[in-house]
Amino acid sequence: MIEIDGSRVLLDPVWSRACSPLPMLAPHRLHEPPIALSELPRPDAVVISHDHYDHLDMPTIQQLTAAHPTTAFVVPLGVGAHLAHWGVPQSRITELDWHQSTQVAGIELTATPARHFSGRGLRRDQTLWASWVISGPTRSAFYSGDTGYFPGFADIGTRYGPFDLTLIQVGAYDHDWADVHMFPEQGVATHLDVRGALMIPVHWATFDLAPHHWAEPAERTWREAKAHGIRLAIPRPGQRIDVDAPPEVEAWWHQHP
Predict the structure, then answer these.
(1) Measured distance CA(248)–CA(86) in Å, rounded
(2) pTM over 0.90
């Protein structure tokens, strides 16, 4: 969850132990959620990047819907059908195409391009995927979602940047997946393209979904960020980060798990 100008936005929440339609066969979480879902402060908005199981988790969505009746759900085109099928009222769902925006609790949420794909079960590419710009009166953040590296990030930086914070996908990569998932070095390039101030790498620490060692993305991102003089924070699971005073990076992943 991120907080911008007093508004709370929850990004791609997954509290389940596994991210798959077949949990017994899927990789399980490497660490427990840092807070119980029932104890989570009320989000003003839940933002979804795309409908893959490791980003759109049915039990989590259903629990949030019941626990927080005023929380809005903002999603790419087509993803709202999943939420409606799971019991989220249509009045609480906003679907956006790329470069469309909506206002929630004093902040603006804008769907922006990404290079990825979508699908659940055997159905693919029937819903949109997106990166997201989250803008308040004084602060702004960029969330990459899942994506391959592409020139559109520079366009996002020109159109919507600079950003106080970027949350950039750096994990679950392989050369065969280069079109849809970034390598850590490309994640750092994305941060530079969108004109970010502080970078937090995401999509690497909760599930082990790729052939590389689970901690490799953090190590490579840290090395590449240092080479470019980029402000970087790599929080432990659940650690709160103040963008104005981020802690020094410590290689905590060397001892975990």
Answers:
(1) 41
(2) yes
